[in-house]
Amino acid sequence: MIRRPLPARRACNALGGFLLARLDSFALRLACHERRLIGLSLMRLVIGFATVLYCLADYSNRQFLWGPHAYDSPSTASAQIPHAGFSLYLLSDSPAWFEFLFHTTILTSAAFMIFGGRVLTLVQAVMMWSLHYRNQDLLEGGDNLAQILVIFLIFTVSDAYFAPGAKKRRETLLAADRPPTVSTVLHNLAAFLIAFQTAVLYFAAGYWKIFGKVWQDGVAMYYISRETEFHMSATFAHLMGNAYLGTAVSYATVLMELAFPIALLSSRAWLRKANTLALEGMHLGIAAFMGLVCFGLLMIGADCVCLRDDDYRSMWRRARAGHARLATRRPPGTRSRQVPPLTGSVAGASGSPLRKGVHDHV
Asked: Which pLDDT band, with edges at 50, 70 and 90, does 180 fall under?
């Protein structure tokens, strides 16, 4: 007598086959070709620019904030550094050493922003970590995420766009006859981890907001706009003073953060683009109204990797099409009248304006 497999066993076999098929598909996608090249290049630009801005914003006070005789003494800064942290600024109390490191950080960040590449990314990570851990009182919150993401960025191709020689580099990377390489797998895996880290961050932030009383009541943005710790805009405080607008912004913030992982995994491009652009708009508002410029920029840089290359291309096509429509559209008052073609009877009529004009010129 032949025993038939039990329904539970058949279900387990089907589930195992499905998971193996998905795993094979994921491995094939990792080894096929480099993905999210545009987002990684944008992230490189944002991190480099944010670091330069971070240094230049308090350039005249650099000795007081990060120098060997700063208010945050080297011994205090060393005690605050976590187990895996480090800072080259604490290796010496020489003012010359500090000036060398500080200006090297600015030059490295500028070069990283312009050129990219794995070597410059590694140097950028070392210099950025050293600057952040020299004085953690100045950090705005997005620095912790940037410290993690810049490590993943070392294994990626971050100079495929917006860098010298980017076009030739893309042709090599996206060649049809290019065999799978370990570098390709590392690139795609690092890009996936960047998007995963960003999604986890947003979901955790939205999840904890759900249990907050002020977020449940929809008054969180009102109280945030009254904080004195940040450089709040009077316009922002006035807008959040409106009960309807403040409640809508509070609930929309929680909704966008909770929906981000779902939108990221969705096959619907419009949902992914809408959610990501909404979050980037939120961080632009944080930078403009709360004064947390570096935080807003770093979060926008992380959001850029969450969009696929096809998403950027479709948005660029739509932007160009919209620009073309605006360029061809003229105001009603400036439209030129259409002149009817000249006929033989009109052109040959005696005393016509055309004939009169010709005789006058002759």
From this structure: confident
Nearest to 188 by CA among 24, 37, 308, 34: 34
**67-76, long-range: CB < 8 A, 24+ apart:** 67/95, 67/98, 68/92, 68/93, 68/94, 68/95, 68/97, 68/98, 69/93, 70/135, 72/134, 72/135, 72/137
The CA-atom distances, in angstroms, between 169 and each of 33, 54, 113, 159, 174 are 13, 30, 17, 8, 9
φ and ψ of 202, to 5 deg:
-65, -45
- Backbone φ, ψ for residue 303 (5° rounding): -65, -30
Q: What's the token pair of residue 265?
A: 């995994």
Tokens of residue 343, six digits? 């006929």
Alpha carbon distances (Å) from 167 to 31, 117, 164, 172: 21, 14, 8, 9
Structure tokens at 82: 């976590």
Highest mean pLDDT (candidates 21-30, 171-180, 269-278): 269-278
Tell me which DSSP letter residue 351 carries. T
